[in-house]
Amino acid sequence: MWSLSVILFLLSRRFVFFLLYNNFIPISLYVTIELVNVGQAFLIASDENLYRKELDVACSVRASNLVQELGMVSNVFSDKTGTLTRNEMKLVKFVLNGVMYDIEEGNGKKQSANAILSKFGTNAKSFSEFCRCLITCHTVVREKSGQYRAESPDELALVEGVGNYGCNLMERGSKEMIVEQFGEKRMYEVLAVNPFNADRKRMSVLIKDTVDNKFFVMCKGADNIMMPLCKLSNEEKASINKSLLELANLGLRTLIIASKQLSAEEANRWLAKFKAATVSTVNRDENIAAAGAELELGMQCVGITAIEDRLQDEVPEVIADLAKAGIILWMLTGDKLETAISIGRSCNLILTDTTLVYLTKITDKAEYAARLREVYQQIETNREPNTALVMDGPSFAYFDDTDPEQRSMLLRVGQGCRSVIACRLTPTQKRELVMLVKKDTVPSATTLAIGDGANDVSMILEGNVGVGIFGKEGRQAANNADFAIGEFKFLRRLLLVHGRWNYVRQSKVFLYSMHKNMVLTLTLFWFRY
Ligand SMILES: [Mg+2]
Q: Domain tally for the chain?
């Protein structure tokens, strides 16, 4: 009889024998793939075709473990302003009392105030007020060299736009600003600034004219926010809406300009409230916002500005190529519906024969559910790939993301379309949409989010792959992204060339590593007997 110790000895030898085959499990593959990825990241970062000369930036890769995912992307979520467009704004048109004017580019020669105002006939007074609003309601600074420095390109465009009519910002101190109005110098005291933010969507200033000691509130902002703040008759509302639609159909970004005069008591009473809000220790931001909102009530609508933003190079071609590669493009923007559609048409997201289905202008949950079902059935019954879905943020707010049926219907609608245009979205809603596609698609979809501004950061972080563009709105997006590029057109090369090659190379390394291990261990196994 064998003793127990002998049995144990034999068992342990058998165990050691199998342990020798551990090479079969490719632990080294992790290291190999990491090394390959670092190499591939280097290839992307040193690609001359991804280098943007004007900004002196190459593609920067911050997450080398994501390089193969670039070749698997099925849904691209893109911001519009600054991503598809250049974010080089120019004031091209404005509307005063229902009459549309084109900006006349001044060719440097000075005109007298009368000569300028006489061109506007009965609207001369409105035009003068319009210019005063634009030249005082901003946070632009003029440097010694005469260059303007602005927080946002829109603001700069407005100030530069009125420059064509002899209205310029001359100097800005901590409390006062000196401006030139139709060639005449004037000093205004800036008493308070209620800044622009994504929730308020407007900015206003309280200023005092130092010549006649009059107080004015000057305000500019998005039309849906500004219209309720202005005193308007029904006809005026209709006329403004008509002008807004006309401008949006031209693909222009619109802002409403409004103002009101305050008496000295009103101004001082409000200033006391504003000061109390700025020094409050709890809920300071809310208190300041509330004070600002109070000041902006009951204004007179002065005019509408229309700013043009041109598309970046090759955007239509890139979008057409991405569509050919079977990638669904979602354009998520904060702009108006008509502007978004017009940009969508000019950049190939919507072709001339594309059918549009709408999930817009919905006012409650039940309606959203019903409309979604309708659109879903429409898409399911005639599955033609040349459809585009148009949705808007205020309606999307009624989407019930806890209802699995609604989630799957929206997803099927999105996947059944060649593109999706979502406008008036908040940064959180942008993120929610990315999350929906990322989580619910079966088999799971690889999502890529691309944007240029701080408002796109949440979306970029949510996507499987985040791409940031070095733009005019700071570097937050580029710093938070996995890849940062200089222009939208580089996305094509990044996805369709690098992504594809990275994926192919990585599969080859994987197969090579498996086969190598198989050869090693099977030889051992074979000659064992
Ligand atoms: Mg942007």
A: 2
